[in-house]
Amino acid sequence: RAAKAKAAAAVAAAAQDEGEGAENLVTGAAARDEENSELYSNYRPARLVDGRPHPDPIVETASLAGVSPPEPKYLHHLQDCVALGQLSNAQIEAVVYAFMRFDKRLQNGHRAGFFLGDGAGVGKGRQIAAMIKEEHARGGTRVLWLSVSNDLRFDAERDLADVGAGNICVFPKGSASLPKGRIDKVHKQGVMFITYSLLIASLKKATLQTVDDQNVDTSNGVSSDLPDPRAQGVLPGTRLFHVVEWLAGRDRQGNCLIILDECHKAKNLIAKEGAATQTGKAVGALQDLLPNARVLYSSATGASEPNNLGYMYRLGAAGFDHM
Length: 323
Known about the structure:
Helices cover 36% and strands 10% of the residues. The protein contains ten helices and eight strands. Strand 7, helix 10 and strand 8 form a beta-alpha-beta unit. About 6% of the residues have low confidence.
């Protein structure tokens, strides 16, 4: 009888503990929900009226929600996208603020850049495609889209088609390679979609050669205020040299759009130990050599610590020599 009584008491105690545990779980979940509601707020454009509501919920931190964005003063050329519902109000907002920023100059005379840091679900690919369409509407014909994988080129072409810009050529096509030497002999305009790896492929093995040795025309009969790539250590014969040359354009002014997609790939421009990475240096050289370029940094994880921001030359942030 004593053993049965002891067992019954143990069962009762366990039942009570289980009930209290379930109650604690419910209470804990409610507390976390309340805490999250204090940390995050539902997001919708505060000042922009164009575009349909975004189809997925978007949140932002409560601290950011307390900051009012500037008045949108840029008049975009995406009215057809608005009428057809191809872009949400949040996506159009990114285009408007990006081009507002591109119209400004930093103290060193370089064009200001824009950081697109939206998370998953906002549609950064479509936002980038909309910016390319806007750039073309303004007369810009040369765009560099740097990515982490060649396979993402098909996504880029899809995003362009989704915003009614499928007529803009994306190259190289299929399994084709980027032309060697002067790129504008093959491609006069379009979106050059290449990887960071390709950009730095020949940097290590490049040797200093004269312009005549490479049969490179750097003037095209037009005076240029752009820096000489060779003075920046970007040598003729490298992929980076020919990419910069193409982006400079026939007028050598470099009024182009550079998209650094998944830009955290360049976060080690300022290395903690040892030298900076080749990718970081190449991204830095692109920005130094093309001061008139519109530079878009795109990443949901642009930096994990302040030191990683060193490659974002065009944000105009304090504490970095270039920024």
